[in-house]
Amino acid sequence: MAESTQPAETPRTYEEIRDSVGAGLAAHWRNADREEGHLEQFYRSLQDDERFTEAEKARQAWEQYERSAPKITAGRKKARELLKGRVRSAWAQSIPFPPGEGPFVSDVSKLLVNQNEASRIRSRLDRAEREGKGPFRADRTALLREEYRRALEVGGVQGGAICRGVIGACEDFGIELDSVVDAFREDRHRQRLTHASEAGEQLDLISTNVPQPPFPRPDRAVVAGEPKQAQGSREKENPFEKKRRGRPKGGGRP
After folding, report:
1. 203 and 149, same structural domain?
2. Best CA proximity match to 228, nearest among 65, 85, 72, 48
3. Is residue 1 part of a domain?
4. Residue 136 has what pLDDT?
5. Collapsing DSSP states into helix, strand and coil, what is residue 81?
6. Residue 120 structural domain
7. Which carries the bigger pLDDT value, residue 106 or residue 41?
8. How far apart are CA 126 and CA 95, in angstroms?
9. Which of 35, 49, 109, 235 has the most CB atoms in a 10 Å sphere around its CB?
10. Domain C-terminal end among 152, 184, 216
11. 164 CB-contact burial (10 Å; exposed 0-12 / middle 13-18 / buried 19+)
């Protein structure tokens, strides 16, 4: 068999990924990175400046940190919020549902139907678990797949409620949702799943930290004003997000 002569795809750099997310989102992300770059350059210039004592360098560095950190944190927070919205939307559209239905509902009547179907599905799984022994133990994934197939056949509000009940059962029993719904996905669902994955990877690249000065922090009374807790803190992960990956090859900020 002849070997493929197509060149391997070159990994995209951090900057290429950042600038590909759309003008509005990229602006928040890029501005935060630019502010961070200026802050790190300020630290380096202070380290090489022989005019100042170490104490004076520390004072200036921490004052600049207090001014820059809120801007960096705010820009990245906004970019992360926008990407989380993309992940959530694309994920929802990657799950097969009857027409007019989806994973998230707020209508009271639908919520009541959801509760009934979710309770019925959990009871069925518990009953099958009690009755099955040894090699005859129930296959929960197969049972949920059967329920999902029936939901798509039934359609309408009832079918949507069954789908959501299956999704809830997967969460409760620790069953991988894709193992249940993937067999029912069409090309459009798989495309949205790819988009959700890409947005999740982009989200993972946005740092939640602000680089602190390479100098000991002086007494708070020395730093102008009461410092704010500006260093980025890790946000709660969206249940549909991927685990953090390493930064792609090709450069970019840590």
Report:
1. no
2. 65
3. no
4. 60
5. helix
6. 108-184
7. 41
8. 25
9. 35
10. 184
11. buried
User: CA 15, CA 132: separation in Å to the nearest integer?
Assistant: 54
* pTM given for the model: 0.73
Q: Distance between CA atoms of 188 and 170, rounded to whole angstroms?
A: 23
Count Cα atoms within 13 angstroms, Cβ side, for 78: 15
**Cα 237 from Cα 74, distance rounded (Å):** 18
Express as a percent the part of the chain with pLDDT over 70: 80
Which of 70, 65, 173 minimizes the C-alpha distance to 118? 173
Residue 239 lies in a domain: no
Are 90 and 112 contained in the same domain? no
222 pLDDT more than 50: no
Residues 26 and 41 in one domain: yes
Report how far residue 22's alpha carbon sits from residue 207's, in angstroms, rounded to the nearest whole number. 18
The answer to the question of residue 198 being in a domain is yes
* pLDDT at position 6 over 70: no
Residues 82 and 191 both lie in one domain: yes
Q: Which of 212, 215, 211 is nearest to 49 (CA)?
A: 215
Q: Concatenated DSSP letters for 221-241?
A: TTSSSPPP--S--PPPPPTTS
Query: How many other CB atoms sit within 10 Å of the CB of residue 157?
Result: 17
**Where is the domain boundary, 151, 184, 217?**
184
Alpha helices in 94-237 (DSSP H): 108-131, 140-154, 156-173, 178-181, 187-205
| Euclidean distance between CA atoms 123 and 119, whole angstroms | 6
Both 180 and 200 in a single domain? no
Q: Which residue has the tokens 């719904």?
A: 181
| Residue found by looking up tokens 């999740």 in the block | 200
> Is residue 215 in a domain?
yes
